[in-house]
Amino acid sequence: MKGLNKSIIKDMWYRMEEDDVSGLASQLAYFFLLSLFPLLIVVVTVIPYLPISEVDLLGVIRDFAPGEAMTLIESNLKDIMANQNGKLLSIGIIGTLWSASNGINAIVRAFNKAYDVKETRHFLVARGMAIVFTFAMIFVFILALLLPVFGREIGIFLFSEFGLSNEFLTIWNTIRWLVSSIILFIVFTVLYWMAPNKKIKCVSVIRGAFFTTVGWVLTSWAFSYYVGNFGNYSATYGSIGAIIVLMIWFYLSGFIIILGGEINAYYSKREGC
Description:
transmembrane helix; 12 helices; Virul_fac_BrkB; 273 residues; membrane; transmembrane
């Protein structure tokens, strides 16, 4: 068993070096940064038509984003919402989605490299798929906003009948992390299953999706704790400290997402799936 574990670690280390996972993660961090605010523009233009607020939106992001990065996101999001108009949702929607899909498109290329397959789909088909995934992510993100909001309101209503509303809020603050993690697991499972240019069984990507879900949540929490308690990036980098923190968070996120794809590809090749 020990020899097998060493073999798996050795093989995974070789795959990480061979496929340049670190370099791909850097590319993903760049594309994530380019995609973040166009994606937020789309979400923000949809929010007025839904029973959720800017506070709910920021609350979901704040659960994972480091403090300094969250400050940057909040300030830019407030500027976007202050200047938004109907044109953002109508005329600019196509260009916005095209920009926001860059991150998904980069993930697809990384997964293809993990499976050692070339992208044979037409450019418009591949980009269209990335845009569809972007739409799906927006839908899931909105769902992630709606579930906690409605879940909290329904729970407070039901528990208040028994005079237990305060106890429910304590329980809810604990389980909402579990709800968010389940949603993330579903998103990663679909992404690992559909994104590569290869026919894959859905069940074969569960290992990577589980690893990425747990790894991303723990890494985001640990990095947020480090930034909040030890890493004073503003003192070192000045006004761009928040951007540095955001880029490091994106890099770590990209690294874990690609590593999850490498785990799926490794076991797919090993088991002949």
